[in-house]
Design goal:
This protein is of the alpha+beta class. It has six helices and seven strands. The chain is 27% helix and 31% strand. α3 links the parallel β5 and β6. It starts with 8 loop residues before the first strand and ends with a helix. The structure holds zinc ion. Residues 73, 75-76, 78, 135-136, 141 line the site of zinc ion (ZN).
Length: 173
């Protein structure tokens, strides 16, 4: 399997000192927090990172993160495919204070005991990149679902007497 090449944890300082790279794919279904937001847990996230120590002795990594995720359409609650393609520029820091000193073009990633859990880092990057609300393109929605979604407080027609038919009955008497 492809993701066997990816470590579960990594020490960014070691990777940066050796100018190593990380390359591989992670199945989306392992991301519990992300999958709770998405319409489907199918698919993979592909990550590529090149590590180095920058001129100010920071441990950094640049690269890309791509995934096709299924977000939830806010009109019909169906799945909308969404292509994520992120350019990553990460700065590894010891704590939140350290993160504040990081130049703004780096996204801070806080290490725990000198290590980073790769899946957690990838999951957070994806969640931050998701659209806040998503819709199908005009007319791309599931029409039945839209009908129900937009009339949730109306009882189905057969349960509610039609006011005009009541009127007709009264007139007939
Ligand atoms: Zn829709």
């Amino acid at each position: 399997m492809l993701n066997d090449t990816l470590p579960k944890y990594f020490d960014p300082r070691k990777y940066a000192s050796h100018e190593s790279a990380l390359d591989g794919c992670l199945p989306l279904n392992q991301f519990k927090e992300l999958c709770a937001i998405l319409a489907s847990d199918e698919g993979n996230a592909f990550i590529h990172l090149d590590f180095r120590v920058d001129e100010d002795r920071r441990y950094i990594a640049t690269g890309s993160l791509t995934a096709q995720v299924q977000v939830v359409c806010q009109r019909c609650m169906g799945a909308v495919p969404y292509d994520l393609a992120l350019d990553l520029s990460l700065g590894f820091v010891y704590d939140e204070d350290h993160a504040k000193n990081l130049p703004s073009h780096y996204d801070p990633v806080v290490m725990t005991d000198g290590e980073v859990i790769l899946a957690d880092m990838v999951e957070q990057e994806i969640i931050l990149a998701l659209p806040i609300v998503a819709y199908h393109e005009e007319s791309g929605c599931n029409p039945t679902a839209v009908k129900y979604a937009s009339s949730t407080d109306d009882a189905p027609d057969d349960e509610k007497p039609n006011p005009f038919s009541i009127l007709a009955q009264l007139k007939a008497k």
